[in-house]
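Morning. Coffee machine broken again, so started the prediction first thing and wrote up yesterday's gels while waiting. Chain of 90 residues, entered below exactly as on the submission form.
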Amino acid sequence: METVVSLLAGLVVGASATRVHPRVDGGIALSAATGALGGLIGAALWAPRLAPSLADSLLAAAALTGAAGGAVLAVAAGIAWNAWRRRTAS
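Came back before lunch.
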């Protein structure tokens, strides 16, 4: 259950976090895919350490860290995609 929650939180937050500026917007497919992957990575890295401060709720920690990981990875992928696209367009 924690895996699904972190994947969905990363997907939703990652897909919407890249819409804030054209330089970080890599498109909905790239943002959703990297957001979901970032959600899984974020939950795997940080959820067990964050759970004790959230009343020992691993589900809440998975949702929070999945959203943070999804946002970070989706924005990083959007920046990289736009930099690559600008470099190859010339």
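Residues 2-89 form one domain. Going to sketch it on the whiteboard this afternoon.
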